[in-house]
TrEMBL record:
<dbReference type="InterPro" id="IPR037171">
    <property type="entry name" value="NagB/RpiA_transferase-like"/>
</dbReference>
<keyword id="KW-0413">Isomerase</keyword>
<dbReference type="InterPro" id="IPR004788">
    <property type="entry name" value="Ribose5P_isomerase_type_A"/>
</dbReference>
<dbReference type="InterPro" id="IPR050262">
    <property type="entry name" value="Ribose-5P_isomerase"/>
</dbReference>
<dbReference type="GO" id="GO:0009052">
    <property type="term" value="P:pentose-phosphate shunt, non-oxidative branch"/>
</dbReference>
<feature type="binding site">
    <location>
        <begin position="29"/>
        <end position="32"/>
    </location>
    <ligand>
        <name>substrate</name>
    </ligand>
</feature>
<dbReference type="GO" id="GO:0004751">
    <property type="term" value="F:ribose-5-phosphate isomerase activity"/>
</dbReference>
<feature type="binding site">
    <location>
        <position position="124"/>
    </location>
    <ligand>
        <name>substrate</name>
    </ligand>
</feature>
<dbReference type="InterPro" id="IPR020672">
    <property type="entry name" value="Ribose5P_isomerase_typA_subgr"/>
</dbReference>
<comment type="function">
    <text>Catalyzes the reversible conversion of ribose-5-phosphate to ribulose 5-phosphate.</text>
</comment>
<comment type="subunit">
    <text>Homodimer.</text>
</comment>
<feature type="active site" description="Proton acceptor">
    <location>
        <position position="106"/>
    </location>
</feature>
<feature type="binding site">
    <location>
        <begin position="84"/>
        <end position="87"/>
    </location>
    <ligand>
        <name>substrate</name>
    </ligand>
</feature>
<protein>
    <recommendedName>
        <fullName>Ribose-5-phosphate isomerase A</fullName>
        <ecNumber>5.3.1.6</ecNumber>
    </recommendedName>
</protein>
<feature type="binding site">
    <location>
        <begin position="97"/>
        <end position="100"/>
    </location>
    <ligand>
        <name>substrate</name>
    </ligand>
</feature>
<comment type="pathway">
    <text>Carbohydrate degradation; pentose phosphate pathway; D-ribose 5-phosphate from D-ribulose 5-phosphate (non-oxidative stage): step 1/1.</text>
</comment>
<dbReference type="Pfam" id="PF06026">
    <property type="entry name" value="Rib_5-P_isom_A"/>
</dbReference>
């Protein structure tokens, strides 16, 4: 196991401490979330009674393979907890998510939970976000024109003309579980007014949603070699 994988395991184990019997859980996507789901599956086999709402088809497949009962968000909301990873977090617990492509369903599930707990390892906690390219989910129809509008919005807000790159998987255009495409926008580590940028991007015709999670996360678990830090939104 690599050092990073070990830190992900530690963050996942700490997140599991928040889970209680009878809870309705949002189950995130990505490698850290998968570490958590594997630990959760062991607890379920030991008698823990929970029901989960997956944020991706991959998460659903993993959870079912481990015997975790899954349900429909429409029937289970509000959820007690949503537990997920992130690509970046600032010190206000605002996030960039979507590197794995599940940002839309992840955000819907997180917004449907009483509390979102986020697991990261140390380098992902940053003063200003944007070193990780911001994923933006876009409807396929007219997506090239939508990308131009995204770049124009960035320029209007003082971010210059960041590269706006259509995501591929191999030689094919990447498609989300909702059959949309993703553009990754290379702002660089300069995103300042996160809420203003999030609002502006949401207003672009053709944008389904973006990977800025503003005011959603309540608890951040940061795993470092020297130990675990738990940060709460003030």
């Amino acid at each position: 196991m690599s050092n990073i994988d070990h830190l992900k395991q530690q963050a996942a184990a700490r997140a599991l401490e928040f889970v209680g019997n009878g809870m309705r859980l949002g189950l995130g996507s990505g490698s850290t979330s998968e570490a958590f789901i594997n630990l959760l599956g062991a607890r379920v086999r030991g008698g823990l009674d929970v029901v989960g709402v997956p944020t991706s088809e991959r998460t659903a497949q993993l959870a079912r393979s481990l015997g975790i009962v899954l349900g429909d968000l429409n029937d289970l909301a509000p959820l007690d907890l949503c537990i997920d990873g992130a690509d970046e977090s600032d010190y206000n617990l605002d996030l960039i998510k979507g590197g794995g492509g599940a940002l839309l369903r992840e955000k819907i599930v997180a917004a449907s939970a009483k509390r979102m707990i986020v697991m990261i390892h140390g380098p992902k906690l940053v003063e200003k976000m944007g070193a990780f390219p911001l994923p933006i989910e876009v409807i396929e129809f007219g997506h090239v024109e939508t990308a131009r509008r995204i770049q124009a919005v960035a320029a209007e807000l003082g971010y210059g003309t960041p590269a706006v790159k259509l995501r591929h998987k191999g030689d094919a255009v990447y498609k989300t579980d909702s059959n949309n495409v993703i553009y990754d926008v290379a702002f660089g580590p300069v995103i300042a007014e996160t809420e203003k940028l999030a609002t502006a991007l949401s207003c672009v015709p053709g944008v389904v949603d973006h990977g800025l999670y503003i005011g959603i996360a309540k608890t951040l678990i940061v795993a470092r070699p020297e130990g675990i830090e738990v940060r709460e939104r003030g």
